[in-house]
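FORM 12-B: Structure-to-Sequence Request
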């Protein structure tokens, strides 16, 4: 680079004295001080950062999903589509994180595994909140958080509130579709039960996309979210299998066997079953 170009760069309108700097705005001193390995093993920092970054992405995914749910309640579907699309892109980042973690070998992980104690991703309260918001309502899962009153109370509130799918079915009802009353007003903490009437409503929409384009697009946006959730679960399961085989997880779960069972869970069952009848 010539001296002239260097001089131009050094005087290119850069604010050397700032009221607030990049690091201050992002609170980088605190953020970058949050990585505290419990051992001297090289790979533990990777393990910590992957999980911390994932929690940040989940925080943003929750932000977008809540925003989408509020817009669906208000019939503002165009705004909801943008937020659901962004949530899907965030999920792709979460899926990619496993590709970095699998560079860790079984012996790498074993070198610091004991440092984790009984901590486990199963205890992630943000992940649990996202599951509840999307519709995987299982009251037993909240018990893992009972010792943390603030998180427990918040999760209980989300568990007892309509999921984004419940809110979507209420929208279909407002748009004139025959949604059973027991799917519009029910015990929200209980898992949604698949319904032939709900599938019929989606069948009408999916067989007439030009007439019901907004609802058709909403259905596909929700399927994107669940499809990526399944991809995340699968990659999680295979990563665990690759690193620890069939050993039990640090949090007491059965490890791979537990994660395999989670692959069968669905948030929006009628949006999957309806495809058989199109």
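FORM 12-B RESPONSE
SEQUENCE OUT:
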């Amino acid at each position: 680079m010539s001296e002239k170009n260097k001089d131009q760069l050094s005087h290119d309108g850069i604010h050397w004295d700032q009221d607030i700097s990049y690091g201050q705005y992002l609170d980088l001193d605190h953020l970058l001080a949050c990585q505290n390995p419990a051992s001297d093993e090289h790979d533990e920092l990777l393990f910590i950062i992957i999980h911390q970054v994932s929690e940040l992405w989940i925080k943003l995914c929750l932000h977008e999903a809540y925003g989408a749910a509020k817009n669906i309640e208000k019939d503002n579907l165009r705004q909801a589509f943008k937020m659901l699309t962004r949530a899907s892109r965030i999920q792709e980042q979460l899926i990619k994180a496993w590709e970095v973690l699998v560079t860790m070998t079984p012996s790498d992980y074993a070198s610091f595994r004991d440092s984790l104690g009984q901590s486990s991703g199963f205890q992630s309260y943000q992940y649990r909140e996202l599951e509840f918001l999307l519709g995987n309502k299982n009251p037993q899962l909240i018990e893992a958080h009972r010792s943390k009153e603030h998180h427990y109370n918040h999760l209980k509130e989300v568990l007892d509130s309509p999921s984004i799918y419940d809110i979507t079915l209420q929208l279909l009802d407002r748009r004139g579709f025959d949604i059973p009353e027991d799917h519009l007003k029910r015990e929200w903490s209980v898992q949604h039960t698949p319904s032939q009437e709900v599938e019929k409503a989606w069948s009408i929409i999916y067989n007439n996309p030009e007439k019901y384009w907004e609802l058709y697009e909403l259905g596909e946006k929700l399927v994107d979210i669940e499809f990526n959730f399944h991809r995340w679960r699968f990659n999680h399961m295979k990563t665990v299998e690759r690193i620890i085989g069939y050993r039990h997880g640090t949090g007491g779960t059965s490890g791979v066997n537990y994660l395999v069972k989670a692959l069968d869970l669905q948030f929006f069952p009628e949006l999957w079953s309806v495809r058989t009848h199109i």
